Amino acid sequence: MDWKVTLYGLSIGEEEITAVTDVLRRRWLSMGEQTEAFEAEFVQMLGGAGEAVAVSSGTAALHTALHALEIGPGDEVLVPSLTFVACAAVVLLNGAKPVFVDSKSLDDFSLDPQDVERKITPRTKAVIAVHYGGYSADMGEIMRIARRHQLRVIEDAAHGPFVHTPWGGIGTIGDIGCYSFFSTKNVTTGEGGMVYSDNPRLVQKARLFRSHYMAASSWSKHAGRSSFYDIEGLGLNYRISDLAAAIGRVQLNKHAAGQAVRVSLAHRYRERLSEPVHLPYRQADPETGSHHIMPILLPQTADRVRLMQQLKEAGIQTSVHYLPCHLFRFYQECLETKPGDCPVAEEIAERQLSLPLHPDLTAAQVDYVCDHLLQNLVK
Ligand SMILES: *Cc1c(COP(=O)(O)O)cnc(C)c1O
Fold this sequence. Notes:
Elements: H1 14-26, H2 33-46, E1 51-55, H3 58-68, E2 76-80, H4 86-93, E3 97-101, H5 113-118, E4 124-130, H6 139-149, E5 152-156, E6 164-165, E7 168-169, E8 176-180, E9 193-197, H7 200-210, H8 218-222, H9 242-272, E10 294-297, H10 304-313, H11 329-335, H12 343-351, E11 352-355, H13 363-378
Parallel strand pairs: 2-3, 2-4, 4-5, 5-8
Antiparallel strand pairs: 1-9, 6-7, 8-9, 10-11
Helix pairs in contact: 1-9, 2-9, 3-4, 3-7, 9-13
The site of pyridoxal-5'-phosphate has 13 residues, from helix 3.
C-alpha cells in the first residue's frame, strides 16, 4: 500500500545506522556496555532516583514486573480492558487472574479509579495502570486507593516515557514502571522494553529474572569480572541486544525534538477538529501528553468501517485503539467475561479512531487528514 500519510513514522536516520555499525565493529552484540549506558541515560532522562532494567520488549517488561512483585496463583490483578492484550496475558501467564476495569470516561480512556475500587476483593494484589495515548491515568486517585487496600501498582507507560505529571513522570509513580520500544513507539529500538523502579529489591529481582537468575552475566564474565555463576531462581531470557540498546541511546537524544513536533501537531488537530468529532483529553494541556497516538471519537451514527476505507482511498492510514480485551474470545471463554462488563470501554471501542501522528508528519498533512475526515463524515 502506497500511503500518503502513515499512522506511525519510524524516525531512523544516519545516527542510528552509525551507532549500529559501531557496535558491530566492536564485536559484542548481546547485552553489554551499550545496554548499561542505555539504562543509565534512560534513568537520567526520567529524572527518577531509581534504576532501569532493559529487556527484550514491553511485554517482557510487564512479565518481569509481575515476577518482581511475586504475583502468582490465587492473586487477582486489576487491568484496564481498553488496552493492548499484553497486560492481561502476562497476568494469566503468571497463574494469576486478570480482572478487567472500565475506562474512566469518553474524555479519559484510561482506567476508572471508581471501578478499580469496586472490583477489589481480598485476593486483589495489584493494579496495572495503563497511560492511554501517553496521557497520565488518574494516578492521584489510583495511588490513594492502592495505599488504602495495600495493592501494588504497575504502570504501563508503553505509550510514552518522559511525561511529567503532578505525581512525577509516568512510570515512576507506582511500584514499577514498564516501557516499550516497539517499532511504533515514541522511542524505538525495533523491539525492546524497560523496567523502572526505585525499590532496589524489585530492581534486583527484575535483573535476575531477565537472565535466568544467573548471578553473573556473560558481559561481566567477558569483562573479566567473574567466571562462575549460580542459579538463584526461575527466570527467562528477556535480554536486550547491544544493537537495540545503541539505537535506543540515539533515540533518547532525539526524543525532545520529536516530542515538540508531536505537541504542535496535536495542537493543529485540536484547532481543525470539532463537532461532530469528539476529542478526548481536550481539557488536558497538550504539553502534558506524549501524543503516541491521536485518538478521536466518531459520532455514534458514523460508519467507521466505511470511513476508514474512504480515508484509505485518500492514502490515509488509520487504526483503532483498542478492541476491549474482555470481549476477545479467549478471555470470554477463560474468564467468563461478556458484553456489558465494561460499558464505557465498549462505547469507546465502537467509536474510536486513531489518526496519523508522528514527528515526520507536517501540518499540511494533518490538514489533509482533517479535510478528508470532515468531508466524509458529513457525506
Ligand atoms: C506496545 C504496548 C505493549 C507491549 O509492548 P511490546 O514491546 O510490543 O511487547 C504493552 N502495553 C501497551 C499499552 C502497548 O502499547
